[in-house]
From TrEMBL:
Superkingdom assignment: Bacteria
Designated name of the protein: ATP-grasp domain-containing protein
Gene3D superfamilies (alphabetical): ATP-grasp fold, B domain
Taxonomic lineage: Bacteria, Bacillati, Actinomycetota, Actinomycetes, Kitasatosporales
Organism of provenance: Streptomyces decoyicus
Length: 417
């Protein structure tokens, strides 16, 4: 079978991606370390060719591919399920003559590009680089209106990493200091955005584009603690304010048309403030992360592998697209819930106890012996996900126990609200 290289996969999707690609006639090759995962996820990856590397280190990824030609020899394509990696995927594809998602997907990985294309659907935004911040050339006062202050975040980064809030009245020095305090490697060329802070619930719109035609699948609503997403309800269209659904669809339609996107999934995130939605992350070229693939499967009576097969091949037109899953009409599926739980204060996780006989799907994200960040700092705080029909998850989460170096701990989560 032809090889498809996967750069970027989360724990839940890693359980199903090998079967999804093999059913479509391809053999997956992962730029990932199975030992960084746990249980069923690690077992799934160990059945594939895996090449451990730090995918957050661009130079390390490029060095791995240069030093080991067997990875790209006879490979057909390279893709992934992390939208911020699509620019690197595009670069690798050009270097080794591989197929990859279309150019619009890599371009739309930038929050700055998205805000420039659809300003009427985005928070007030300015774009700058690390060098601009260091030179005190970024004045938050130019971001208006911003009655609740500002959000500073890398233009190409997911999971809340590097994001911080600045208060109304912040100046250029505050921007410089905030960039330095993110802990990201110093990079004068790194693109950043400063946006008006939108206070309100977080929704996402799942769907895909095929030959320029947009298919809207479902809305979902997230629960958050600080910068950490800790739950997701799907479908959640009935929770949106009147008229917000149409505005969300209009934003995605405008983005697709203005960018020229013709193929691929999307997971567009909106904050709803003052009764109207603002698109804050486009997440073009991929399905929603965490356990959304399992939620869609449960809600629509599909298989996760069936969905991922469509996701991965739709983004690679040369591969020949797998059949479109038979999604129900938007909002018409069963109510599903997923908790992306963590532990207060973070720490070293020795194991996770989930009672036998439950009806929910459990994925341990951090391996035994791994460390998680404190809940609230970003999605690196996830210990695991518990996913199922809404009533089942609400009941079974109470019985999950996280064993840590400091003894047993209860998981931390909040319901979407």
């Amino acid at each position: 079978m032809k090889k498809i290289i996967i750069l970027g996969v989360n724990a839940t999707s890693a359980k199903y991606t090998p079967q999804a690609l093999r059913s479509a006639g391809f053999e997956p090759v992962f730029l990932a370390d199975p030992d960084a995962f746990s249980g069923q996820v690690a077992a799934s990856l160990r059945g594939c060719a895996c090449f451990p590397t730090d995918i957050e280190d661009r130079a390390a990824v490029l060095r791995l591919l240069a030093d080991d030609p067997s990875i790209t020899d006879e490979a057909f394509a390279i893709t992934g399920l992390f939208d911020e990696k699509f620019p690197l995927i595009e670069e690798i594809a050009a270097t080794y003559d591989l197929h990859c998602p279309e150019p619009a997907v890599a371009r739309l990985a930038s929050k700055a590009e998205v805000a420039a294309l659809i300003p009427e659907f985005s928070p007030a935004t300015i774009r700058f680089t690390g060098a601009d911040a260091a030179l005190l050339a970024v004045d938050p006062a130019t971001v208006a209106p911003a009655p609740d202050g500002y959000i500073l975040k890398p233009a190409e980064q997911a999971g809340g990493r590097g994001a911080t809030r600045l208060a109304q009245g912040a100046g250029p020095g505050d921007v410089r200091d905030a960039v330095a305090a993110t802990g990201l490697p110093e990079d004068a060329a790194r693109p950043w955005v400063l946006q008006a802070d939108i206070r309100g619930p977080l929704f996402s719109l799942e769907g895909y584009v095929t030959d320029g035609r947009i298919v809207f699948i479902d809305f979902s609503q997230r629960g958050r603690i600080g910068w950490t997403e800790v739950s997701n309800l799907l479908p959640a269209d009935r929770r949106l304010p009147r008229g917000a659904e149409d505005m969300c669809r209009a934003a995605v339609t405008a983005l697709v048309e203005r960018s020229g996107l013709s193929q691929g999934y999307f997971h567009c995130e909106f904050l709803v403030g003052g009764g109207r939605p603002f698109l804050i992350d486009a997440n073009i070229g991929r399905l929603g992360g965490a356990a959304i693939v399992e939620q869609l499967a449960l809600s629509h009576d599909l298989e996760p592998g069936e969905i991922l097969s469509h996701v991965l091949t739709l983004g690679l037109p040369a591969a020949g697209t797998s059949p479109e899953p038979a999604y129900r009409p938007a909002g018409g599926g069963k109510s599903t819930l997923s908790y992306y739980y963590g532990i207060e204060g973070g720490g070293l996780v020795t194991s996770v106890s989930v009672p036998d006989g439950g009806r929910c799907l459990h994925t341990q994200v951090v391996p035994d012996g791994g460390h998680v960040d404190p809940v609230g700092t970003g999605d690196d705080a996830w210990v695991g996900t518990l996913t199922g029909l809404t009533a089942d998850v609400a009941r079974e989460i109470e019985n999950v126990v996280v064993q840590t170096a400091d003894g047993p701990r209860r998981p931390v989560w909040v319901a979407p609200s």
